[in-house]
Amino acid sequence: MMLRDLRLAPIRTALTAVSMLIGVLAVVGASLVGTIGSTFLEATNAQIAGRPASYLVSVEAPKGLDADQMQAFATALADADGVAMAPVVTLSEGLTIVPSDGGGTIIPSTVSETVLTTSRYRDVYLLPLVSGQWFSAESDAAGLQIVVNEAGQNRYGGVGSTLSLTSQGTQTVTSATVTGVINDADDSPRVYINATSFAMFETQLWEPQSVDVYAHPQSSGSTANDISSLVSDIAYDSFSGSATGVQRIDNSDSYTEVLSYLQTAFAACAALLLAMAALGLLNIGLSDIEQRSHELLIRRALGASRTHVMLLVSGSSVILSLIVAAVAITLSMAFVAFIPSILPADSPIPHPSYPYDAAGYALAGAVVTALLGSAVPAVKAARLEPAMALR
Q1: What are the residues whose beta carbons fall under 8 Å from the beta carbon of 47, sequence distance 6 or more?
Q2: How far apart are alpha carbons 148 and 178 in whole angstroms?
Q3: Closest C-alpha among 377, 320, 333, 264 to residue 20
Q4: What pTM was computed for the model?
Q5: Cα torsion at 229, 217, 113, 135 (round to 10°)?
Q6: Distance separating alpha carbons of residues 164 and 74, to the nearest angstrom
Q7: Spatial contact of 179 and 159, defined as CB atoms under 8 Å apart
Q8: Tens of pLDDT, residues 314-340
Q9: Residue 120 φ/ψ, nearest 5 degrees
Q10: What are phi and psi of 378, to 5 degrees?
């Protein structure tokens, strides 16, 4: 009988169902923005600016930094508990890195940005590996390791390609092989060099000018001062150095604010659309009461209670809401399942799982809309007097 009520005005029922569906999808969208949207922005931010929270600690090395001290410093940073830390070294003469044909002939090229760091740099920045391998652990013996980003791969070639390294302060040219390619979201060529192996094998090029430490605490209890103090202690033990400053480098606070605005916008749209759907249900309900008044009066005269009449009138709206909720949940699950197929293989974004809270919000939004839209017609039907059936 309740399904029959929906068929009394099929066009109005269909339009109301569509408006309710759009509103429920907006409710689901608000939930997905807070979950999948957060995952997307967090991964993108971690790739570009570091995982939340990430810090840069400036370190002073008053007596210089030789290869053994660099090894000790990098190993101590890697072994620190609760914090992922990696040094980044700037050379006083810089580095010139150009492609080579493998036979020693240097191919002219512009200079690329160079990052001398260690294996735990990827624990601070989210850098998906495209091919090859990243740096070996600080405690492992390894030769000179060079990794390029995707723009660097376009300039120098991929894994196995030969590069030539030199600096302004020396005539020495060193050949090295690319061991890996990563996606760091930078459109400019960038070359990552294992700082510990570089200091050990390329002594003629190793002239550090400054050392910074990039740090990502793996618990929320660590503060900037805690990180700075820890780095300062390790630097002092390794080469009589000290931390001279610390600053936060990630921008997680900014995307959290953006997510809040998006969720608010989705929620406002959902409320407006569901209000329109409720008005549509109200229109259908009042129209049905006019068409079925005689039937309802007879039911009341035959002993039907007011509650039974109210349930009879509002039941069709609730059934419609359940159908709409089921469709909305199915569409949202299909959308979430489709996302991995459009992500590139080297994307930093993890494959999202469906937030089942969204299904609950969809069901609640649809049912509440139905109850609000059918409340007035149900009350009006319940107030019909049985004696009017005799007229």
Answers
A1: 125, 126, 127, 128, 183, 184, 185, 348
A2: 7
A3: 320
A4: 0.74
A5: 110
A6: 25
A7: yes
A8: 777 788 788 888 888 888 888 888 888
A9: -80, 5
A10: -65, -45
Contact 157, 210 (CB under 8 A): no
Confidence of residue 385 (pLDDT cuts 50, 70, 90): low
Q: Who contacts 303 (Cβ-Cβ below 8 Å, separation ≥6)? A: none
Q: Residue 191 contacts by C-beta under 8 Å, 6 or more apart in sequence?
A: 97, 112, 113, 114, 115, 146, 147, 148, 152, 156, 163
Secondary structure (H, E, C), 121-166 = HHHHCCCCEEEECCCCCCCCCCCCCEEEEHHHHHHHCCCCCEEEEE
Q: What percent of the chain has pLDDT over 70?
A: 84
Residues 118, 86: Cα–Cα separation, whole Å: 6
Diameter of the chain measured on Cα atoms: 112
Q: Retrieve residue 175's tokens.
A: 């050949």
Tokens of 273: 């659309």
| 162-187 average pLDDT score | 85
Q: Which of 32-41, 72-81, 218-227 has the lowest mean pLDDT?
A: 32-41
Give the pLDDT confidence of 287-310 residue by residue, as tens digits: 666 666 666 666 666 666 777 777
Q: Which residues of 56-87 are buried (b: 16+ CB within 10 A; e: fewer)?
A: bbbbebeeebebebbbbbbbbbbebeebbbbb
- Give me the torsion for CA of 280, 295, 375, 329, rounded to 10°: -60
Alpha-carbon span 166 to 262, nearest angstrom: 49
Cα–Cα distance measured from residue 125 to residue 134, given in angstroms and rounded to the nearest whole number: 13
